[in-house]
């Protein structure tokens, strides 16, 4: 019972803390790019979503259910991220906020990644996590902390960050993000899984590796 109370109180607290950030975040891009169309007939994407007629809006447009349920973890990195954003909670459109639940297997991690359009605030509901982020060049300073149940940590917008389960059992965290569509760039997947593939010679020099090692990594991340 205490665990369930912590979960919902944590989510409410995260939403309250993140709302002020939304004002500064969502006037910017809500997707990776928005190429101008010559005519409205060619227009497919907008910076956000088209608005529903207010007369047709119902309470269900602002409702999402089931985030309290554990998700199966089957990914190679040992985590599952369940997002609640404008794509599955339509009432979030223009509100500048979203939410995720992260389930971690034993020794699982949410690997180094960035959110190009959002600051993230995370609270641990269950387990023990090692979390951290790295500042931009030239310092590349690492800020890291071990979190237990009820602890909160903030990842600044655009910076590479991660979480790793270092406890003896599964872990669960919730995070709020200051965008309705924060985006995610997982570093390894993006660099080694690019489609089409980045020239291995370029990556070999960037990472100071033998080209054959780069090719092996690219094969691992092929979609």
TrEMBL record:
Q: Which UniProt keywords apply?
A: Apoplast, Disulfide bond, Glycoprotein, Manganese, Metal-binding, Secreted, Signal
- One Gene Ontology CC term in the entry: apoplast
Q: Where in the cell is it found?
A: Secreted, Extracellular space, Apoplast
Q: Which Gene3D superfamilies match?
A: Jelly Rolls (2.60.120.10)
The GO terms describing molecular function are: manganese ion binding
Q: Where does Mn(2+) bind?
A: 113, 115, 120, 161
Q: Which domain of life is it from?
A: Eukaryota
Query: Which N-terminal residues, if any, form the signal peptide?
Result: 1-24
UniProt-listed Pfam families: Cupin_1 (PF00190)
- Chief subcellular site? secreted
Which cysteine pairs are joined by S-S bonds?
Answer: 34-51
Chain residues that bind oxalate: 110, 115, 120
Q: Which InterPro entries match?
A: Cupin_1, Germin, Germin_Mn-BS, RmlC-like_jellyroll, RmlC_Cupin_sf
Q: Where is the Cupin type-1 domain?
A: 65-215
Described by its record, this protein's role is as follows: May play a role in plant defense. Probably has no oxalate oxidase activity even if the active site is conserved.
- Cross-referenced PANTHER family, in alphabetical order? GERMIN-LIKE PROTEIN SUBFAMILY 3 MEMBER 3 (PTHR31238)
Regarding protein family, the annotation reads: Belongs to the germin family.
Q: What is this protein called?
A: Germin-like protein
Q: Which organism is it from?
A: Arabidopsis arenosa
